[in-house]
Amino acid sequence: MNKLLEVRNMSVSIHTDGGVIQAVRGVSFDLREGETLAIVGESGSGKSITNKAIMGLLPVGGRIDSGEVILNGRDIAHCTEKQMREIRGAEISMIFQDPLTSLNPTMTVGKQISEMLLLHKPQMTKEQRYNRALELLDMVGIPNPKERCAQYPHQFSGGMRQRVMISIALACEPRILIADEPTTALDVTIQAQILDLMKALQKKTNTSIILVTHNLGVVSSVADRVLVMYGGRFAETGELDEVFYDMKHPYTQGLLNSIPNLQLQDQALYSIPGTPPDLINPPHGCPFAARCEHCMRVCQKFQPPEFTFSETHKASCWLYDERAKGGAQNG
Amino acid sequence: MAEEILKVENLARHFTLGKKQVLKAVDGVSFSIKRGETLGLVGESGCGKSTLGRTVIGLYPPTAGKITFDGIDVGGKKTSAQRDELSRRMQMIFQDPYTSLNPRMKVLDIIAEGIDNHHLAANRAERTRMVVELLRSVGLDEEHANRYPHEFSGGQRQRVGIARALSVNPDFIIADEPISALDVSIQAQVVNLLKSLQKKRNLTYLFIAHDLSMVKYISDRIGVMYLGNLVELADSDELFAHPLHPYTQALLSAIPLPDPRAERGRSRIVLEGSVSSPINLPDCCRFCSRCQSKGKECEKGIPPLVEVRPGHFVACCHVV
Amino acid sequence: MQEKITQDMFVPVRSDAHKQEYIARKHHSAFHDGWIRLRKNKAAVVCAVLIVVITVMSIIVPYTSPYAYYETDYKHKMNAPSSEHIFGTDLFGRDQWTRVWYGTRISLLIGLAAALINLVIGVFYGAISAIAGGKVDAVMQRIIEVLVGIPSLIIVILFMMVLPPGVGTIVAAMAVTGWVNMARLVRAQILKLKNQEFVLAAQLLGTSRWKTILRHLIPNTISVIVIQVMFAIPSAIFTEAFLSFIGVGLAEPKASLGVLINNGYKALRSAPFLLIYPAIAIVLIMVCFSIVGDGLRDAFDPRMKR
């Protein structure tokens, strides 16, 4: 399959008053056509910052220190703001966790969609834009698009707002959609609606999706491949089933074991002890070493290399080094 | 059978927003909790579960109904001794670990607040000793006592909040979405901690959350709320195995499981629309605007909570 | 420089529960964080130093100078700056160097006194209004609205005409309406805090009302109060200068910067130096306080915290 987007060895740091946060340290992955890649991790794992870096939307003080982001054979990691503006929305779109703050409260929903179209497709007439807006709202399952087009964001419920966000993001038919915790702020029943919608739209438009989330249930219901991040580094990547049923990294194992299973009764719940590392003074070795129950001396001193288990399945953990002698058993 | 420690009868809590605008956050809820058990309370945002928790503990006066905690009427007039007893025996763990600790106070003083108020320590040394003991019981350490809340991670702060609630040796704790703001790996830590503390100290919990899988893990019984009403109440295994209310069924089927194979073969009940506004509600079944098996009888008024099987209560016209 | 990876490193190590909860960052209070941020703000630090220097000079110079601020010398009227009189002399031959520093002292005193009175009245009024709530709050807010509705300058000028001129009168006149902003800010902040979970937690632990106010509400309002005071000082200094300039301020031979500017303005053509030096002093004071106030807000405003 075609690689749409390649991220190579990217490092991102954020300069704050408290010190330099090394948010992402040497992360690589690629995105193929028509697939959904889920990036999983807890807060501070660097999953959101990775995607903001791709979009050129880093917070104040943030910058890409090294690495490349290759889109259509072109490195966009060091593009100017003006060049990025042309890419954003047209080739890569993004939707956020909180749809209320990402919509303009003083503009009607229809106007916001046509603004996006005006920016990237100036050849369209006003009428064409209006019709396209109606078409988009209908596509994301908003009833009475004609009426809704003239309404303001506050007149929509949370789930409806997220639908509007998706329609704006898809207005110019981008090939990549980055969804940053798109359902975290929503209730479970609404979350199910939005996930269904995203799956249906992907089938229709063949858009590739990067889904950033901490909810493993959401991952297993929509993702094709998974990338697990911890402490700003890559931990494990693979096809959905490889990561869920043959997890290699102790963090992935711990994460999956710490979710209570609805089917099984009264099993003891595993929990990963400790607290995520402070990224202002990140540990030298594996970031997970301090919380890992298989921790070895080498883990505390050296960043583990990538070990390959299948064409798609890789993990970064010393347990799979030959010298660790079968210390690596699954969860 | 264990005695009932808390009994809530027909509790209502309304907020008047303006002329003729009444928000019925909690409307006619009844349940009871036995000593040593955990009652989970789930529902979507705006269903009134947090308001219910705060009314039960006495932060809001109830609009109607009665709350009885071990013989004391929480909502009514209390003597100062009764007020003292309530604040010692009933405590709360809050949702947001970032706003539930005073940023200007050291952890030592935060945890010691209850000890000071109830004069539980004879002198300063004993006060410090008690705080350190509480810190250890939630997996923290002596060296954390002199730090300020902003130096802790979310999970650690939440544990400080738990230590504060435990400082007065309560026997009933309301946990108001204590894990919603935490990361997955930390949620399990906090839930396990709550469970082990319950065993050690014989605590009774009212556990409010919107994450059903965690609620199932910690609760003995679960109540499901929808727009101010309790729509279903049953043992947690029973509720998950045989959900009877259409809303509970939809809610359970909407949870995505962390199991790709199961997810692929699953069919979901996807509810249309979203929760209607809790302001000026009509006098019919609250769920009827989204219910798939809605009929004429649903518009006749709010259905009462009926025991359909031993210990399994449902409020729906269709389930008899 | 790097250690080699050796076979013996592949041995499991016991995890240490203590280490897992270890907090790597150096231990300090939230106040300390703000202080670090403030120190990084070069302009604010320079201005803070300037304020200290100006304050110290205004205290020392009038005492150490060979001339008193009221000492006239008709032989040397309107002399240009020289080694004898650094800033020259005024219409009555008084040493302008001494008078500028003396005026600065009076201006600072008025600014500080006015700001402190605003602080005391404003904090109490705002806190009581927010904490009492309900009808009390409604009545107290209507009173504030009435006060805001009356142009404050008119009240101040009326006061100055009725009472004998002097520093006390000016301060009193400005205090009549000056506290309103402080009261509003404190009320807003406390209303916000009142519903925070840590205040509810205190209530549930049986903390008394007064203790809640003293331990939870006031300490979290202090940064807002300090910042407001930093902005109230220059505004009071400016109001005083304005009053003196239009002639309802202090009486001779007492001098504030406003009085000096007024006198200098009258002699602008013949002796521009009489206007320039006090004008520079007042501009410097105003700008410094504003920059320090901004710096404090950036450093201590809770919204900036991560």
Query: What form of chain B results from the Cα inertia axes?
Result: globular
User: What is the CATH C level class of chain C, in words?
Assistant: Mainly Alpha
The total beta strand count of chain B reads 12
According to DSSP, the number of beta strands of chain C is 0
Q: Please tell me how large the radius of gyration of chain B is.
A: 21 Å
- The appropriate CATH architecture of chain C is Orthogonal Bundle
In this structure, how is the largest beta sheet of chain B organized?
A: 8 strands, mixed
Shape of chain C: flat
Structural class of chain B: alpha/beta
Mean pLDDT of chain C: 83
Please give the order of strands in the largest beta sheet of chain B. Answer: 6-7-8-3-9-10-12-11
Give an overview of the whole structure.
Chain A has 331 residues and is of the alpha/beta class. Chain A has twelve helices and twelve strands. Chain A has an eight-stranded mixed beta sheet with strand order 6-7-8-3-9-10-12-11, with helices on both faces. Chain A is globular, with a radius of gyration of 21 Å. The C terminus of chain A is likely disordered. Chain B contains ten helices and twelve strands. In chain B, helix 3 packs parallel to helix 5, helix 4 packs across helix 5 and helix 5 runs parallel beside helix 6. The two termini of chain B are 27 Å apart. The model of chain B has no long low-confidence stretch (mean pLDDT 88). Chain C has one domain: MetI-like fold (Orthogonal Bundle). In chain C, 68% of the residues lie in helices and 0% in strands. In chain C, helix 3 packs across helix 4. The longest helix of chain C has 37 residues. Classes of the chains: A alpha/beta (331), B alpha/beta (320), C mainly alpha (306). Chains B and C meet through helix 2, strand 6, helix 3 and helix 5 of B and helix 9 and helix 10 of C.
